[in-house]
Specification:
388 residues; alpha+beta; Ribosomal Protein S5, domain 2; Alpha-Beta Plaits; four-stranded antiparallel sheet; 41% helix; 24% strand; binds adenosine-5'-diphosphate; binds magnesium ion
């Protein structure tokens, strides 16, 4: 079989010249779901699936972008007075370029070739990977090195404003700050993190249900509104709170009567989920994976029963996971209504887990799940040509 050309060769064939190459990983969230937009805590890890961007400078102020996955080209003129989103893949890289410029990082024109191993729409955040890899590539070749927290914020802003998806900052943050063998306990208000070792004896197994229910984005926005309402009402009796992050379980229970039943359930998920992230971090600090697994099981139940963002397929996949050997914990990960589950599995049984899960899930649903055995990976970086 003929060898697949490398990204350097493909870049030369398309644009000519020698590019610089950058890569940024996808991620999975171990615990702390729907907490990022509540100023709370989450615990994502970058994973060994990367988006690669090869870049070279142009003499004009145009961006010429090619996506290998879409086999499609797109152009943008950085000097154009108005930029309209195209509602296609190119809004991600173009949106990032516009945010960098708006933040005062004047860019040089560039040829960009994008290629990604992060499966799209599988809950591994291919969107953050393309944003972050593009941001690093554009900033670097224009002579800028904005700090990484700033870059994460600009990438998030691009997705919020130009792509039009109201996402929190977790994905971009972990794609930029990921560390090999570590999960990050992320404080989404302070934008600081602690790296916590995931021992080699444990694998992160990501299992895609292969369904994405229509509800996903409308319900996501509704949950955000529910949380805002909870804060508005609680602030009347708890002056000074800014987000559910500021509310303790004891306070929430004491003031349950100011909330409707539904809003109380939503708030109860967020408040207890934050506490679970803190306890999971403690578990990792003391190397207690079993305790971490218990918090994952509770997180899933809370997302299912209180926050009500799970679905039949996710619940089934989690139930099936607990029937397998070597499982410490399993839960839905990401926004919900489909997407993937995250499973913490004893490394010795990860292969068997993957095989048996695939069979069992297919038997119940007729769907063939994609299952990935991962370990925490390094965040975004330039790639030297000798590594390509
Ligand atoms: P997720 O981030 O969970 O994978 P999203 O819907 O947030 O799913 O982002 C997926 C979108 O990101 C794709 O539909 C596409 O527009 C864009 N994207 C991701 N990877 C690439 C790529 N390699 N080339 C072009 N666009 C990409
Ligand atoms: Mg995404």
């Amino acid at each position: 079989m003929m060898r697949r050309p490398t990204i350097l060769e493909r870049f030369r064939a398309r644009f000519g010249g020698d590019p610089r190459v950058y890569r940024a990983p996808g991620r999975v969230n171990l615990i702390g779901e729907h907490t990022d937009y509540n100023d709370g805590f989450a615990m994502p890890a970058a994973i060994e699936f990367y988006c690669w961007v090869a870049v070279s400078t142009r003499e004009d102020r145009k961006l010429s972008i090619y996506s290998e996955e879409f086999s499609a080209a797109a152009d943008a003129d950085l000097d154009s007075a108005s930029h309209q989103p195209s509602k296609t893949w190119s809004d991600y890289p173009v949106g990032v370029a516009l945010q960098l410029e708006q933040a005062g990082f004047r860019l040089r024109g560039a040829n960009l070739l994008i290629e990604s191993e992060v499966p799209m729409g599988a809950g591994l955040s291919s969107s953050a990977a393309i944003e972050v890899a593009t941001a690093l590539a554009l900033a670097d070749q224009s002579g800028w090195s904005p700090d990484r927290v700033r870059l994460a914020q600009l990438c998030q802003k691009a997705e919020n404003e130009f792509v039009g998806a109201r996402v929190g900052i977790m994905d971009q943050f972990v794609s930029l700050h990921g560390q090999e063998d570590h999960a990050l306990m992320l404080d989404c208000r302070a934008l600081t993190f602690e790296s916590l070792l995931i021992p080699d004896s444990v694998k992160l197994v990501i299992s895609n249900t292969m369904v994405k229910h229509e509800l996903a984005s409308s319900e996501y926005n509704r949950r955000r509104a529910d949380c805002e309402e909870a804060v508005r009402r609680l602030a009347e009796v708890l002056p000074g709170i800014r987000a559910l992050r500021d509310v303790s379980l004891e306070q929430l229970e004491r003031h349950q009567d100011v909330l409707s039943e539904v809003i109380y359930k939503r708030a109860l998920h967020i408040v207890t989920e934050n506490a679970r992230v803190l306890d999971s971090a403690e578990a990792l600090r003391s190397g207690d994976i079993a305790r971490f697994g218990m918090r994952m099981a509770e997180s899933h139940r809370s997302l299912r029963d209180l926050y009500e963002v799970s679905c039949r397929e996710l619940d089934l996949m989690v139930d099936l996971a607990y029937q397998q050997r070597g499982v410490f914990g399993a839960r839905m990960t990401g926004g919900g209504f489909g997407g993937a589950t995250i499973n913490l599995v004893d490394a010795r049984y990860a292969g068997e887990f993957k095989e048996k899960m695939a069979k069992a899930y297919q038997k119940e649903t007729g769907l063939v799940p994609q299952i990935y055995i991962c370990k925490p990976a390094e965040g975004a970086s330039p790639v030297s040509s000798s590594d390509l």
